[in-house]
Each structure stands twice: as structure tokens, then as C-alpha cells.
Predict the 3D structure of the following.
Amino acid sequence: MQESLLKGLGTQEIADILSTIPPDDRTKVFVNFPDKLIKEGVNLLPEEERKIALTLIGYERNSVGRIMTPYNVQANNTGL
């Protein structure tokens, strides 16, 4: 169904959607795609997002690497 929906969208629409999905969620979407469609999708991403996508896809299925996000928040207790 996902592949069918993507085929109905234009290239720019797909690029916009993939660019706005958080990296860990985007990886979950890609995991269900055929390799050719993953490659096409990754190539639509801006360079920095492409690097992130390729890194996450490079981890083994069902590994923690596939579900992590590169965006982290650090909070420090400053005692205020």
C-alpha cells in the first residue's frame, strides 16, 4: 500500500515527505520498501539527511542502531 501511494505522488512531494519524517521513523518506512525504492528515496534527500539515512539503514534489522535517532537533547542539572 505504501509503495502504491508513493507511485501516485510526484518526486518533489516524495522528497518533501521523506525530508520531514524523523530519521528513525523514516528508517521504519524504508525497511518495508524494495531495495530499488529505498535507493530512489534516499537519493531524494538533502545531503545531510541522506548520510543519516544511509547510516541507519546500514545497521542490521532489529538492531538498536536501526531505531536510534541522531537528534538528542541533553539536560544538565545546574542546581537552580
About this structure: The mean pLDDT is 81. Residues 47-57 form the longest helix (11 residues). The two ends are 51 Å apart (CA to CA).
